[in-house]
Recover the amino acids of this structure.
């Protein structure tokens, strides 16, 4: 065991920390700042700020320099995730493009795609959405019904995507389309890169139970996409999608832990404020959240080690998803549980605003559904890790 | 041995249920939810409930009530929970119970007919911020016939004409007081809650004139405890209604919704979760019936029964509504879907009149010490 | 709601209580008395005592008088169950015969079977075992492999049964046998009533994890059973078995609650003795057991009402099984949990014997397996009560 | 970043595992279990462990030890748990740790070589009946160099030549003392336990001569706390080994065992339970590694790490061994089957050196107050 980072990595931390300290306005880290902005304004601020972060060399940390990345180590990426949370930096706006699309393009994109997509994405000149889920294709992604029909050099696309992050702010969308008429399940799909700025594409925000709209819906009505804007081969969309999703298996657990642990401390502070922190039963409830959070941290270090050693994480990512999502949900259940009647009030005292807590608590209900529900992840662990029969 | 609702009680349940289905369905509920600054008190719903006698159930016949028991009242509470119906029904019924249990004949004559008819809306303010629900959580002080302090959260204080306030006198003894809307020093501060099927607020009192409840069967700490117990049972009944309806809707949906080419309800992980929830909700239903009956008959085990019912109902509603969102898949997480009405109602009400943990602590005191 | 029993029923309670008070020796109710006896001696004592109880008219409570029963109400049966527990009466020795076989014979037995079987069973002259489970047929009862081949007027039976209560004390066994060669699953089975006192039948005790032997194994090696000793028709054994198992749906929950509640109080007493009863977390754990126990009691009253009204309980019995077995197991988990290191010692103090507690705690692991595992019961509730697809 | 065992540590694990598989398999364990009045200390097993250096891991090289850390020691503990192996390994290692941490150079020179070689069996007596595991549970009193009182349960006191006893002096300060077998006033009362893979007893002291441990790095309450932490980590490692092996055996069995014509492991209810347990056991494995490393490196977060590891390991072992019995079906409930070795070992050890609840309470104190 050696849980330290290299000197070079720690040097990177110092540089990043210095840059963040100098470049995040104080007011941005104040509670309520972001919620007070309207959605477009908030998006614009974050978009521009991140572009400046890219210009300073603090994006694409572990990407090769040829793609505009920093050419850093997995450890630097973990440090980056951690420091961004610590500094309360704004949420990454191009997160799905950066996490999933970019590495897939590096792996299987055409030279043109590599040249034209990655740089503008990194500089936030093009915001990418992901179009995977459909109303009838959630956990069962192979049930995709959106179809594309060849018409000259283009495909004409019709259908609907849902749970699309940043739908209304997106410029382009990487999306699974059934391009072979009559094909079923995993066959005949293609990963199309579609321009959202065209009459055939409409994006609508999707209001969630909390009232917020992290997600949206995207409707394709005779939308056009050139055949060359397919990622991977036409008809090989399932393979492309699986490759793409494999890049979720990063070392982001370190950042996640940092964020959730801060939330734990914030919940504890509210419990203290409302006189609930001395209750032995409430303390057990909270402490058990801490047990799982700390395990998430250890697991992140384990995963980072695997990544550094070039190991294929394979189905281990399902275990990671289960641990973080169930832990996160349980943490926010604890908020409701421990705070009691005060938890449901926006302002149990005139000077206390619990709305952000309530939003998180409701948001926590979604994390065990999207990205492969907990049920799907348990199937994967049971079948692929433990070898139980299908 | 007859552990069940009578035909009359079942018919009463059906009447309320059909009324809600016909006249105040989930679209109507949505209207209230999406108007958070409205008073959350649809007059048509209120009049309908009054017409059915839903407000008069527990009021003695001599005061124009039906003179029935808590077992009958929980029938209404359960249906209101099932329909996630808004409005100050529980609050008003509890205010009337305070008068019935602790009020003098004169006080009863003044207030009960109006409460039973729905002409007067009542509510109860029994606990202050972060307080427990056992009398120790009272944060209003009584000095003679003047009250000062703040109770929170209180159901529907803004529309209430009568607020029954629990307050402690200088010697530390608790008691119940009547405060009328518009009383001097009374300020109602609306409190936003995520449960759009209710409206709540803080009741702030500053040297506010109040009339002590007195001359009834119960007084002081006993009266407060009796009111808390009734609040616990009616809240448990509401939660059980929420839980049952949430479960039924989830099962119905998962019977049809297909993923991987088959109904998701054919997956054993979902089946077993639903089976466990069905057992839990059924047990909670039993527990509420027993507790209501125990209150009505002054069963020697009434304290255990009330605590069991509230603990079990809160846990069942909490678990069932969480599962509802999970097992409707993404759609259950949207604003447009009804799942969040059930989820939020369950979350907000679960801790009222004592959380499951508080009631378990009470059970420990009753059976371990 | 009317939770009282009729005057006649309460009169019965008085009579029974009086008889029990007069007929259970004091020493029998002392802790450790029964465990100190050897197995055969204990069985003999109980067998004889129950025969005298039958003679006094306190057996077959709800059976018709024509079968030697008392012709009582379901309420009297519930009172009987309750009073037997209260009086710490010895465990019923012929329990499987009385619960399952007798009512099945009353329903579908031949006149000879009715005349010859029920009376001797009630008087404990013949002790009946149940032979359903096999090593390869546990939750999946239809996988029965024990076979019977017709030979003249007899069937010749070969095979093995397991989890047979009272195996070594049994005189006869009602058992599922595959009498149609080559048949599969539910077809070709017969319910044979086999004499255990013959060279072809060997019974062995089965030692459990606790060291006790509540169960046994029964081996058939060319055992013979006359064809007339089939209950129901030859080949209709599955139907007979299902009818037989349906009689589990009695009102025994009242007695069960009484017993489990006493166990709760005994566990609480040990928690108090070892200074654990003031711990708020331990108190929550115990109180939650009480919640479930009380629910079991209410459920028993609900079931009794259904029985009195002549309703078919159907799949509701699966719910009953889940509630009692999971509650019972959880109660004994609480014993281990609350008592901590002392729970695993036979005598944490020289004057305290926790062995009976430990036996119960281990026994509690079996109740979610036998009689249809919790998994099987959840399937039944989901499919038959909630109507979820198979 | 290297969060894993080194190749050397993995090789060490393999050596111990293969030794147990070859020389002390479950049949040998059964021999010990079925001889409850035997001393539970098979000499061949003990010599084999000593030969591999398993007893010398933590002993400094100057005293004939390997001078390694707790991370190496937990490798052994985990394999012993996996093999449900009997014997006073943990007890002896903890006694040696007491000397290493709190003993004078002379005391170390007298005892450590023998403990490292397996010539002397040691044990620790840190807590009395129904006591907590944080120093407040000490029930032995020290009067100068004389001890009186009873510690219980103590691992393998009957075969121990050296007992490290925690005792409080008249001022209430705790400290560690050495008591040799045969000391006057020392009575070992064997205590029957259902965990046949261990032998335990009460250590009764009546004005028994004892040598205070002193002159080492730690003393008093710090020494007791350090020993408790090491006991917690090694017990957690044992429990994690038990849990992992129980899970592996259950998965292997359910992959093959058929009911309803298919392997029972193809049922989703079983699959999902196994998946959740696999996640839990894996997290517990991580937690034990981290905690051992935190002790070795005197990480500032060591108190949190130890509490997390013990809580998580106890819960994982408890759940996994319960599931083992359930999902082996009836056979796992029989004496002839090995499931009960795992189940009973997990149950007995889960509360040692602090239950999951106690460690959660400690975490609350560390992160909430």
């Amino acid at each position: 065991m050696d849980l330290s980072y290299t000197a070079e990595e720690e040097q990177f931390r110092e540089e990043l920390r210095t840059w963040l300290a100098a470049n995040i306005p104080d007011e941005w880290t104040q509670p309520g700042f972001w919620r007070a902005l309207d959605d477009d304004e908030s998006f614009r601020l974050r978009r521009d700020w991140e572009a400046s972060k890219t210009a300073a060399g603090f994006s694409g940390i572990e990407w090769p320099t040829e793609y505009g990345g920093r050419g850093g180590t997995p450890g630097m990426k973990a440090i980056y995730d951690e420091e961004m949370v610590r500094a309360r930096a704004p949420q990454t706006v191009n997160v799905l493009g950066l996490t999933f699309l970019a590495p897939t393009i590096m792996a299987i994109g055409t030279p043109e795609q590599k040249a034209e997509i990655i740089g503008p994405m990194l500089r936030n000149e093009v915001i990418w959405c992901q179009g995977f889920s459909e109303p009838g294709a959630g956990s069962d992604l192979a049930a995709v019904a959106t179809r594309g029909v060849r018409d000259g050099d283009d495909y004409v696309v019709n259908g609907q995507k849902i749970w699309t992050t940043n739908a209304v702010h997106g410029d382009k969308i990487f999306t699974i389309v059934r391009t072979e008429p009559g094909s079923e399940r995993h066959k005949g799909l293609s990963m199309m890169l579609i321009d959202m700025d065209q009459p055939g594409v409409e994006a609508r925000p999707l209001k969630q139970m909390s009232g917020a709209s992290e997600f949206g819906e995207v409707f394709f009505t005779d939308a056009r996409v050139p055949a060359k804007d397919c990622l991977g081969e036409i008809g090989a969309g399932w393979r492309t999608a699986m490759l793409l999703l494999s890049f979720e298996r990063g070392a982001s657990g370190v950042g996640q832990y940092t964020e959730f642990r801060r939330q734990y401390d914030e919940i504890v502070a509210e419990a203290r404020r409302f006189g609930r922190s001395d209750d032995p039963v409430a303390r057990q409830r909270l402490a058990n959240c801490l047990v799982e959070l700390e395990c998430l941290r250890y697991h992140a270090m384990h995963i980072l080690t695997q990544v550094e050693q070039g190991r294929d994480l394979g189905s281990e990512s399902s275990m990671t998803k289960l641990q973080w999502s169930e832990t996160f949900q349980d943490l926010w259940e604890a908020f409701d549980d421990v705070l009691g009647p005060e938890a449901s009030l926006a302002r149990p005292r005139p000077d206390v605003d619990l709305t952000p807590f309530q939003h998180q608590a409701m948001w926590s209900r979604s994390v065990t559904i999207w990205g492969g529900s907990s049920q799907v992840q348990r199937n994967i662990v049971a079948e692929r890790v433990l070898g139980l029969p299908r | 041995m007859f552990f069940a609702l009578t035909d009359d009680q079942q018919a009463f349940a059906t009447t309320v249920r059909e009324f809600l289905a016909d006249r105040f369905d989930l679209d109507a509920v949505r209207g209230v939810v999406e108007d958070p600054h409205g008073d959350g008190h649809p007059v048509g719903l209120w009049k309908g409930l009054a017409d059915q006698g839903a407000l008069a159930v527990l009021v003695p016949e001599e005061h124009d009530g039906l003179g029935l028991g808590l077992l009958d009242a929980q029938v209404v509470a359960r249906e209101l929970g099932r329909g996630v119906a808004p409005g100050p029904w529980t609050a008003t019924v509890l205010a009337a119970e305070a008068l019935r249990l602790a009020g003098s004949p004169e006080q009863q004559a003044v207030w009960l007919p109006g409460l039973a008819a729905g002409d007067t809306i009542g509510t109860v303010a029994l606990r202050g911020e972060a307080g427990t629900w056992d009398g120790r959580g009272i944060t209003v002080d009584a000095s003679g016939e003047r009250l000062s302090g703040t109770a929170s959260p209180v159901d529907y204080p803004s529309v209430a004409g009568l607020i029954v306030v629990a307050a402690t006198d200088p010697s530390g003894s608790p008691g119940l007081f009547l405060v009328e809307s518009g009383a001097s020093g009374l300020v109602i501060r609306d409190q936003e809650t995520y449960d759009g099927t209710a409206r709540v607020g803080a009741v702030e009192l500053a040297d506010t004139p109040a009339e002590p409840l007195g001359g009834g069967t119960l007084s002081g700490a006993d009266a407060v405890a009796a009111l808390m117990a009734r609040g616990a049972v009616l809240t448990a009944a509401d939660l059980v209604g929420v839980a049952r309806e949430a479960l039924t809707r989830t099962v119905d949906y998962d019977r049809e919704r297909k993923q991987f080419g088959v109904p998701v309800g054919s997956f054993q992980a979902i089946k077993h979760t639903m089976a466990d929830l069905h057992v839990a909700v059924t047990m909670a239903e039993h527990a509420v019936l027993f507790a209501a009956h125990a209150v009505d008959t002054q069963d020697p085990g009434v304290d255990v029964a009330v605590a069991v019912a509230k603990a079990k109902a809160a846990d069942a509603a909490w678990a069932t509504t969480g599962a509802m969102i999970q097992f409707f898949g993404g759609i259950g997480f949207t604003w447009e879907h009804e799942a969040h009405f059930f989820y939020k109602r369950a979350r907000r009400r679960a801790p009222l009149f004592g959380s499951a943990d508080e009631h378990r602590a009470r059970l420990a005191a009753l059976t371990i010490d």
